[in-house]
# Entry
Amino acid sequence: MFCVNCGKNLSEFKGSFCTKCGTKREINTIAEVQSNPGPVIQNDNVAPKSTVIQKKTFTYQSQATRQKTSPLSLRKCIKIAIGSIAAGVMLGLIILPFYKDDVEVYVLPSSLSGDSSESKMENVVSVFPNGGSTYAITEDGSLWAWGNNTNWYLGDGTRIDRSNPLKIMENVTHFASSGGRVYATTEDGSLWAWGFNTYGYLGDGTKRHRHSPVKIMENAIFVGVRVDTTFAISEDEVLWAWGRNSSGQLGDGTTENRTRPVKIMENVASVGPYLARTTDGTLWARWGVLNASSFEDDRSMRHSPRKIMDNVTSTRFYGHSHFLLLTEDGNLWVMRREIDPNPVLRMENVVSVETSRASAFAIDGDGSLWAFGNNSSSGKLGDGTTENTTIPVMIMENVASVTPSRDSIFAITENGGLWAWGSNEYGQLGDSTTTDRLRPVKIMENVASVTPFGDSFGASTYAITEDGSLWAWGSNGSGQLGDGTTEDRQSPVKIMENVVSVTPGERSYFAISDDGALWAWGSNRSGQLGDGTTEDRLSPVRVS
# Structure
């Protein structure tokens, strides 16, 4: 007997669900007829009842029904049919209550169908590439999805890859995804989720994978995901958490996994990895990572929030073992991840701070850029050396913003000049060379924003100028620059005009133009570019 969804042998099922894809086991006593199976009626909004694997159709059937059947008389057929119906009714009475879910399932928009020509995506305001899947939110709050759908990532009720955008939900205000699970909040405050649910991290009270959105909670204004835990903030400023809790990472005082949201604390303004900030600016250590030796109390404190500091406005990871904390008075503090109760003051008069691994870059009230921390062999601090330092060093003046990316750093000055330094292995700095730079070098002028991106395939950089032109340079082996070639570029190349934002993904890249159109290029193996094909694109194509 085999799974109707993925073909896995049913003898390897765990209980009533497939251990590979999570599909519920069904009973089918109809013998397989391979010579002439007859017409098949399929609704694209429903998961298919069989999967073609190497041109064989697998259905749930016992060993007995696989044996060659002999012709039956009409009377026998009628008796078998009556018996099957009676058995089906009895099975239904027994099985259906067992599988009944105490969850509300989202009613998919009527425009959802296998043919996306019935509804077109327009006026895109944000795009979220996630591996081979892509999501976009339009001006009217509609959530669209396309690309890889192997494990129900898209939420359309199927496992069929889509090369055209499909409308999944309406009135969406916030979106988040990680590790094969997806979340969206709607205008009425409802939080919905779908996808993988191994540790119950969807929050629907089960561990069943979900093919389409199910309602998790009401009055949600924010949702955040990290590895196998999920956090949400409700309208009344309460922090909720659910999912895996083996080290007390949920903060509910236990180490029990939670399949539904549990209340953690009140008056929460924001939550991030390991830390939460309340509305009065108080910073709390977010449990599960506390080192009990840092406190004079019992180890159970590591399973609940612990107050750290007042008047905190923002936090940043600083390497693998530290945090940077910026307070209202402009003081920048360094604190160990193990939650040292005595953070160390590092700088004053700081307006903003960004980090790259164990390196930090802070802009002060005068517009001066300072750096400290790890300097790597490429000189990423920009101070002309490759030596590490714990003392902030001034790098340049009149800086409006700084954007670190691994070991390559970019800064935009107040007059729109783009400067870069650090690693330049792929020409990602854009100075016409592949030479690492220990000090900032000027790349181009009139830059409004810069988006560096690095992955296992190299490093590329994208910049939008004040006139809306998109420029790109760096690695281009898979066409990630969008210039129509696969040649690396060591200096900026103009890609397209009238661009308001650019979003790199995993070998797939997206730009939104000022008329709300979404453009894409790069890898398209699962149809993640959304142009109706699975052909890779070396130049931007309109997402249809």
Notes: Residues 10-99 form one domain. The helical segments are 63-66, 74-99. Confidence is low (pLDDT under 50) at residues 1-74, 84-100, 111-117, 290-301. The longest helix spans residues 74-99.
